[in-house]
Amino acid sequence: MDDRLVREHQSKVRAFLRRLTRGDAALADDLAQETFLEAYRKFDQYRGGGSLSSWLCAIAWSRFLMERRRRREEPLDEMPETASPDPQDASAAKLDLERAMARLSAEERAALTLCYAQGHSHGEAATILSMPLGTVKSHVLRGREKLKAMLE
Amino acid sequence: MNDLDALLCQPLEAVADEGFTQRVVAARRRQVWGERLALFGPIVALTALLPFLPVEEFTSAAVRLTPLVAQSGPIAFALAVLALTLSLDARLREAA
Question: Whole-structure pTM over 0.90, yes or no?
Answer without folding.
Answer: no
